[in-house]
Amino acid sequence: MKKQTIWILTVLMAFAFIGLLCIQIFYMKNIVGIRYEQFSQGVRQSLIAVAQHLERDETRYFLENQVNVVESQSIYAQRLGSSLPRQEGLKISFTTPTGLEADLTLKGDASAITKIQTGESLVGQHFRTMQDVYRDHYLYQRGVLDDVILNIISTASERTITERADSSLVRTYLRQQLDTLGIDVPFEFAVVNRLGIIQYRSAGYNPGENVDDVFTQTLFPRDPASRVYKLKVYFPTKSDYIFRSISFMVPAFAFTLILLVIFIYTIIVAFRQKKLTEMKNDFINNMTHEFKTPISSISLAAQMLNDPDVRKSPTMLQQISQVVNDETKRLRFQVEKVLQMSMFDRQKTTLKIEEIDANLVVYNIVNTFKLKVEKYGGRIDASLDALNALVEVDEMHFTNVIFNLLDNAVKYRSEERPLHLVVGSRDLPGERLEITIADNGIGIRRDDLKKIFDKFFRVSTGNRHDVKGFGLGLAYVQKMVTELGGTISVESEINIGTKFIIILPLSKN
User: Fold this and answer.
1) Which of 1, 129, 237, 390 is deepest in the core (most CB within 10 A)?
2) Cβ burial, residue 481 (10 Å; 0-12/13-18/19+)
3) pLDDT for 7-23, tens place per residue?
4) Of all helices (H) and strands (E), which one includes residue 156?
5) pTM (two decimals)
6) Across the strands, what pairs with 439?
């Protein structure tokens, strides 16, 4: 698939997922707004009902506990000039002609009762009609209630707020009203005066900066402005309550996110596979070139051997033999690198682990490689200072690791100064051995440092005509060091040089 096609599909799918997510987010936002408005409306209704309950309780208090006091001070008692309780009215006991005894209580207008008491009329003949009695009774009771109401208006606000709105009663009313509306949410409350000073509060009332979670209701709104109190109710878990009501949307949103993650991962894999295909193509091209050169040299040597004049010259035979030998080694080395690639497809590499002296092995590699370095006018120094260099490794792969790093140092040498390689070893705490290989070559860019251990990756400076390769060397090095239980890192600066650091665990024996 072409890269352009992948990009088009990526953009289309991205727009589709973004649109779907936006719709879901918009829908959830609207539902949250509706749930919040319903919650707020229910709470406000509950607070209003609580305030009305408290007002009715206060009215009941005055009716039940102060009606006698009010009655004794009413205008009816003052008119009669008597201390008789007017609620009982006038009680008369009499005996009928047949000998039956009875009690009769008259309640009504104070003037009429007074006339009866003073004997201005006979009891059996001058009673008012029942209509007059009820009318007088009504007028009497209305007067008593008027006095009670006047007393409430004048003295109710003088009572303390704790008497008028008991905290336990407020909590009970709030719980009842909220449960009636289906709002099963814990709450805390406080009563404050007109200056906002808290008169009393529940133990958990501490809204802090969450002013949106606090609802306010005025208590006894008909009181004077200077004595106004407000009930503040705080819902610590309001957000949780609202979002629980839309929990059914969470799975849909989660599935959409999962699909988005899978889509992104698929696109990343597609681009990686595309890049891997390109690198494999480069690998095939490089491999063809690397194989073509030694094969051509060997073929040319074989043709020269067919010449009778060449066979008669021992010197020419020696030169041709040397060429064939060198090109055969070169070809074998390239084949070995290609075979190394097969290791990356195995889950576990088969290693022949044995205990070796790393200093000795590295020293032998340095001596073998010294001729190649000197060929380019450079030098290689070894500072193998580790006192304990016994490690358990596969000697063949360990040798290939050191050789690959030295070979890269020669390949990417600087043309501006003579090549200088430094190979060293030292002891580290924790029974570890450090091996370093440093050069003064062209260096590696910071962006490439993160990729140099990737399979088939080659730094851009490696595209020069005199530097060829498969992009497998450092990938092989990292894999083998990791398989041997160690780590490898790199430090590099452009035009300064590169330093590879290998750390291996020492032999347990």
Assistant:
1) 390
2) buried
3) 788 888 888 888 888 88
4) none
5) 0.44
6) 421, 498
